[in-house]
């Protein structure tokens, strides 16, 4: 793993939500920019303060390079219109709007942003592409949709791949951006699941003594899902804050239509990703038989059902936002999912700021071997690189250069440094430079917290036993079926085995409808990442 110090970071900032305009018919001519005098000097101080007062007061230096404020402000796109589709505000939608406003101001372009709720985004992007209509030049979407979208995306030109910022993107996220050996997605976010815990509770001598007396075990950051359950169960319902209110053991994403499938895959990863077995986690690559109802997945769902007793009231219907604020607000002792809950806990006004720690996802003491059809008794961990936001340019766009310039500007070093500090933006570390603890210490993070954070994230990059999302055509159908099965088990409607047997049946039908060869061809890209081939 290579690390590079992130320089020039000073202290945060401001942004206001901007009004999106509707998409209009595409312009008829492909035009490049004209040249003009730059609006920024090399190394200018950058902040978002003129756009609002709802953000931390950070300023950073404009890092010289082809994507910088100075370089992009030399380009004159007056008279041209860039059309963008993105997620609803705030997650990804808000930075899309902000950087569109900035791009307008410094290039003279007109930028139209359409913000769409998550449930509608896939269709709104894919339908015009399939019809051959370049409704949007730039698209922001979950990276696991690449199996559906790749045929319609413009490969990232070499001059953008050679920028310093792009060369700083980690190997994992360059892999995520690549399809059939071509980089067709423009990296601007890096998502993974990991464990978050409150150290003020776990390191309290009184709590440690009480836990030892009750369980006979040492209280520590859980290393397995069994340990996670033990700790969560012990603390659930107790007032460990001493404020007269009950606290709870675990906050998890459990709402059927709000990313439950990702939470379940986190729990399943160490049970199903055997380092000695190649050829697929979700399907057998050679036969395309679903593996979702094999013993490792069933064990994980059984664990998740048992965990219900450790959740806060309403926890059986928690969406991602609920999980973020339950842990980030101090209600629960532990959680696992995206960065957002950890960043929320580390906000300047958080009552648990610098009282938290990042750690790898819990592992297991045994892992299923689907070749021998038995359990291998050995400690196993499997980091989960869950879907993250990405961006791309439509192959049919008549403004590809302007579109790539916008993405280059969106993800430049100054903007990324600021965006990473704003939890609701949904922009998380994806460059090697983001793994420097000093980057976070300059935000006021305690050195121990910063080191736990970057060590956890960089450790996932170094692991050779990893799980990636299923990135194939029809992925939304597969994940919807999985979410339905998990929800049925959590509700007590089906046993974990019966629920996942039903999911496997649905997956086989979906594969048949889409075409086995088509799904198999796409799945080879996923297996290549998992098998490090």
From TrEMBL:
Its organism's taxonomic lineage begins at: Bacteria, Bacillati, Actinomycetota, Actinomycetes, Kitasatosporales
Protein name (Swiss-Prot/TrEMBL): Sugar ABC transporter substrate-binding protein
Q: Which UniProt keywords apply?
A: Signal
As one GO molecular function, the record gives:
transmembrane transporter activity
Q: Which Gene3D superfamilies match?
A: Periplasmic binding protein-like II
- Could you tell me which SUPFAM superfamilies the record lists for this protein? Periplasmic binding protein-like II (SSF53850)
Segment forming the signal sequence: 1-25
Q: Which Pfam family, an example, fits this chain?
A: SBP_bac_8
The organism named in the record is: Streptomyces avermitilis
């Amino acid at each position: 793993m290579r690390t590079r110090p992130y320089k020039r970071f000073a202290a945060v900032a401001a942004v206001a939500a901007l009004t999106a305009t509707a998409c209009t018919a595409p312009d008829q001519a492909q035009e490049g920019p004209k040249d003009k005098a730059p609006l920024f000097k090399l190394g200018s101080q950058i902040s978002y303060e003129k756009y609002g007062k709802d953000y931390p007061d950070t300023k950073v230096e404009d890092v010289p390079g082809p994507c910088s404020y100075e370089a992009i402000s030399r380009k004159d796109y007056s008279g041209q219109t860039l059309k963008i589709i993105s997620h609803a505000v705030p997650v990804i939608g808000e930075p899309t709007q902000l950087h569109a406003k900035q791009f307008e101001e410094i290039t003279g372009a007109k930028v139209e942003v359409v913000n769409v709720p998550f449930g509608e985004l896939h269709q709104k992007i894919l339908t015009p592409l399939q019809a051959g209509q370049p409704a949007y030049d730039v698209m922001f979407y979950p990276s696991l949709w690449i199996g559906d979208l790749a045929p319609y995306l413009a490969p990232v030109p070499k001059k953008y791949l050679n920028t310093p910022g792009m060369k700083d993107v980690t190997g994992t996220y360059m892999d995520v951006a690549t399809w059939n050996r071509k980089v067709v997605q423009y990296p601007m976010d890096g998502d993974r699941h990991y464990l978050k815990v409150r150290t003020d509770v776990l390191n309290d001598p009184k709590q440690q003594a009480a836990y030892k007396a009750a369980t006979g075990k040492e209280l520590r950051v859980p290393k397995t899902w069994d340990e996670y359950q033990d700790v969560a169960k012990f603390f659930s319902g107790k007032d460990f804050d001493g404020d007269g209110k009950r606290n709870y053991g675990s906050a998890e994403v459990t709402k059927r239509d709000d990313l439950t499938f990702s939470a379940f895959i986190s729990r399943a990863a160490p049970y199903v990703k055997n380092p000695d077995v190649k050829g697929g986690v979700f399907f057998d690559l050679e036969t395309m038989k679903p593996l979702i109802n094999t013993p490792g997945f069933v064990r994980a769902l059984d664990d998740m059902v048992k965990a219900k007793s450790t959740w806060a009231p309403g926890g059986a219907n928690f969406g991602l936002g609920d999980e973020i604020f339950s842990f980030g607000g101090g209600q629960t002792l532990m959680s696992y999912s995206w960065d957002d809950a950890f960043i929320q806990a580390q906000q300047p006004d958080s009552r648990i700021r610098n009282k938290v720690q990042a750690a790898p996802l819990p592992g297991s003491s045994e892992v299923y071997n689907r070749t021998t059809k038995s359990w291998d008794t050995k400690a196993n961990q499997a980091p989960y690189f869950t879907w993250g936001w990405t961006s791309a340019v439509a192959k049919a766009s008549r403004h590809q250069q302007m579109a790539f310039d916008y993405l280059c500007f969106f993800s430049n070093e100054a903007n990324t440094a600021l965006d990473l500090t704003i939890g609701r933006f949904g922009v998380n570390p994806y460059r090697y430079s983001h793994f420097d603890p000093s980057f976070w210490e300059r935000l006021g993070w305690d050195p121990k917290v910063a080191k736990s954070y970057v060590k956890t994230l960089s450790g996932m990059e170094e692991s050779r036993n990893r799980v990636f999302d299923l990135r194939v055509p029809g992925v939304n159908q597969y994940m919807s079926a999985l979410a339905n099965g998990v929800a049925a088990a959590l509700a007590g409607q089906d046993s974990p085995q019966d629920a996942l047997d039903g999911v496997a049946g649905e997956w086989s039908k979906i594969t048949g409808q889409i075409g086995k060869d088509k799904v198999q061809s796409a799945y080879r890209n996923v297996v290549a990442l998992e098998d490090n081939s």
